[in-house]
Automatic annotation (TrEMBL):
This is Prephenate dehydrogenase. The lineage of its organism: Bacteria, Pseudomonadati, Pseudomonadota, Gammaproteobacteria, Lysobacterales. Signal peptide: none annotated. It catalyses: prephenate + NAD(+) = 3-(4-hydroxyphenyl)pyruvate + CO2 + NADH. It comes from Thermomonas fusca. Residues 78-351 form the Prephenate/arogenate dehydrogenase domain. Keywords: Amino-acid biosynthesis, Aromatic amino acid biosynthesis, NAD, Oxidoreductase, Tyrosine biosynthesis. GO terms for biological process: tyrosine biosynthetic process.
């Protein structure tokens, strides 16, 4: 009964995208050799703090005995079901599963009338992934547990919610294998999560472990294992505190705009720190407001983090307001010396170096003597051909960065020495257009 609808194998689809998917072909029981202790491509053991990886076959906080197996083997090419398929991450994930893993994706979303119905999704999806509003997700998962009524046994349930304890606990009330994921970035314009962190909460895994590892490898993220509880405690600082402090800065800037002018009037007076903080605030204010609201109100540890932040700021304001030598000594001891000691030399050196590198990048980005060039040919040697066009004209390239345009197109941004003759640059641009080596992008 519980196994109805589980397809152990499926004939490969005739579409090219399915055929070009990652080739994960488990032998029955092959998953027993893949462990969280063994390094996986793209997934280092980045366990932080007190969370150690469990040995093969063990289940983190699931109560499932070591060595327990799920009711059935996973299919080689699972059909993915996304709950919240019309949302920002739902759409990104669909594209990822289809194009990078060659898998069939179905989804349900009230915002998409053409989407699959909930019951059909539960019936047909081998892997069910929740990508719904944070606030609604635990109750939504609980409803799916009731609707599924045991059909989920032997399948895999995942979520990408920004808080983890409640969604993972809700998924564990099902009979499915369970892992919680949290990509530490908004859906990127790139096809994978390369260079981004992905928190992985392994909750109840046995037969699906090898497939999950193949998913993580395909995502190319820097995977970090954590329990849901540790995740939420960490995110109260990494997200709730950081978002709150930048929103508070934006509030102070708004309140003081009458005295010093709006943000645009302050930007010409910027430091690199101010520019970075303003960029963070702008990012938060540009994305989905529900995410930022729900991270504050949905992470059970957020209020504690905000109260601690407010207390630190209040103490600093008291000392600065007091203004005498005693207050200065207190400021130095509490806010400079104590924090410097707590962080230690290595963390300070690393952070300081990161700051300098970002500072140079910001300086290069503010340079107006630049060209953004898209290289249509993604092949070895195409960058060299581009540089050669400038070299032949004696044009010195002072800086070179690869980045993405706002539309997500990969490009190189070339900065030139101040004295570069405009005619030489114009000639180079004309050659790029003529030869098709590169397409110059509008500013
Ligand atoms: N956007 C980010 O920066 C980001 C980053 C990491 C993780 N996440 C997580 O991804 C999840 C989705 O976020 P998003 O940015 O895609 O939000 P979103 O608002 O763009 O998408 C959520 C989707 O869920 C749908 N939905 C609402 N109720 C539903 C229901 N009952 N059944 C099915 N679908 C329903 C909505 O119609 C919407 O399309 C959240 O849990 C969020 O925490 C988001
Ligand atoms: O804007 C980004 O790319 C983010 O990193 C978004 C961000 C964050 O600011 O912490 C917001 C919500 C998600 O849970 C993960 C990351």
């Amino acid at each position: 009964m519980a196994r109805a609808g589980i397809r152990r194998s499926r004939a490969p689809s005739s579409t090219a995208s399915r055929d070009s998917g990652t080739a994960w072909c488990p032998e029955p029981g092959a998953g027993r050799t893949a462990t969280r202790d063994s390094p996986q491509p793209g997934c280092g053991d980045g366990v932080a703090g007190n969370q150690r990886p469990a040995p093969a076959g063990a289940c983190v906080e699931s109560g499932l005995p070591r060595g327990a197996r799920s009711l059935s083997e996973p299919t080689q090419r699972p059909r993915i079901g996304i709950v919240g398929s019309a949302g920002a991450y739902g759409r990104w994930l669909r594209a990822f599963f289809e194009t990078r893993m060659g898998l069939e994706v179905i989804g349900h979303d009230p915002a998409d009338p053409a989407a699959t119905g909930e019951d059909a999704l539960l019936e047909q999806a081998d892997v069910l992934l929740f990508s719904a509003p944070i606030r609604r997700t635990p109750e939504l998962i609980e409803r799916y547990v009731r609707l599924s009524a045991g059909r989920e046994a032997g399948r895999l349930w995942l979520d990408v919610t920004s808080v983890k304890a409640a969604p993972v606990a809700a998924m564990l009330r099902s009979q499915a294998e369970v892992a919680g994921l949290h990509p530490m970035a908004a859906p990127p314009k790139s096809p994978t999560l390369k260079g981004r962190v992905l928190v992985v909460c392994e909750a109840r895994l046995s037969s699906w472990r090898p497939w999950l590892e193949s998913l993580l490898a395909a995502l190319e993220a820097e995977c970090v294992r954590a329990t849901p509880e540790r995740h939420d405690r960490a995110m109260a600082l990494v997200q709730a505190m950081v978002h709150a402090s930048h929103l508070a800065q934006a509030g102070v800037l708004r309140e003081q705009a009458g005295l010093v002018g709006p943000l645009a009037a302050l930007m010409p007076l910027r430091s690199a720190s101010f520019e970075m903080d303003a960029a963070v605030a702008a990012r938060i204010l540009s994305l989905n407001p529900a995410i930022y609201e729900d991270i504050q109100f949905g992470n059970p540890h957020a209020p504690e983090a905000l109260r601690a932040l407010a207390a630190q700021l209040a103490r600093m304001a008291t000392l600065v307001g007091q203004g005498d030598d005693v207050a200065r000594a207190g400021f130095r001891a509490e806010f400079l010396d104590a924090n410097r000691d707590a962080w230690g030399e290595q963390a300070l050196a690393l952070g300081n170096y990161t700051y300098e590198r970002i500072g140079y990048l910001l300086a290069d980005l503010s340079d107006t003597h630049t060209l953004g060039v898209h290289l249509p040919e993604d092949r070895p040697g195409s960058l060299r051909s581009l540089l050669h066009v400038f070299e032949r004209r004696g044009v010195n390239i002072a800086s070179l960065h690869s980045s993405r345009t706002q539309a997500g197109e990969l490009h190189f941004r070339l900065g030139f020495s101040a004295g570069t003759p405009a005619g030489q640059l114009a000639d180079a641009v004309a050659e790029l257009a003529q030869t098709g080596i590169g397409r110059v992008l509008p500013d």
